[in-house]
Amino acid sequence: xxxxxxxxxxxxxxxxxxxxxxxxxxxxxxxxxxxxxxxxxxxxxxxxxxxxxxxxxxxxxxxxxxxxxxxxxxxxxxxxxxxxxxxxxxxxxxxxxxxxxxxxxxxxxxxxxxxxxxxxxxxxxxxxxxxxxxxxxxxxxxxxxxxxxxxxxxxxxxxxxxxxxxxxxxxxxxxxxxxxxxxxxxxxxxxxxxxxxxxxxxxxxxxxxxxxxxxxxxxxxxxxxxxxxxxxxxxxxxxxxxxxxxxxxxxxxxxxxxxxxxxxxxxxxxxxxxxxxxxxxxxxxxxxxxxxxxxxxxxxxxxxxxxxxxxxxxxxxxxxxxxxxxxxxxx
Length: 331
Ligand SMILES: [Cu+2]
Fold this sequence. Notes:
Bound molecules: copper (II) ion
Low-confidence stretches: 125-131, 145-155, 295-299
Largest sheet: 6 strands, mixed
Helix content: 40-55%
Oligomer: single chain
């Protein structure tokens, strides 16, 4: 039986579409979704995987068919026919990618906006570029001048509140400082400082990010969030953790020789567990203040304490860092 080419092409097209759609949903490349933003990002990623798979199958399929169909016949030493120029074909293979890129562009912008990433104030912000161009001490002075001028509340960069949440304050705010080579978390309401981040589940969390020395990047793979942290430029991330568990916090910017050790943990807990943790921290830090003098006797703690005073972290966080530091060295 001879099936017409049109029918074969149509069947191949249907098969290709089905396989691409299936792969887009079942690629298994992403870790679990643990925040309200994760589903949005995954939707975009899945669509791109579907399109990529379709193009991959189409290109590889045509290649394989050509290999088989136009194979050299035994004894045939002649050149193939010279074929060049096919205007309709060129229009098609220019137009299809152009449309795909346009659709993905509009789609990703919409998601960025839904997540709260679009901030008109940030669009006109050239401070970072100016700082990078200043030679010598000029940059440092400018960073200080900028941070003073802006004040603590100026937050133009990062994934902020989504448009529907813009008028509500977050349920919990945590200040995060990135420094070589650790993240320090401060809970302004209770004054607790810790080397790991604890948040209650299903609450609107806002974190204010600052860098003390160089550029770091705060990356939560399971939350599909990553934000550069730039000295002198406050940034924020706002998200709702939706899944109880323990997740890595990774520095995703090469920030120095021990960059690989700059990681921490994020614990998403029930409100009750979170309250317990917070209370235990408040209690142990009150304890710590009484033993500061004793702890300072250790030579390297004393050395670090001077630095800690300058960057504004307390003894408890310092000890956690020290433990972390030793771990990194023993790796
Ligand atoms: Cu870093």
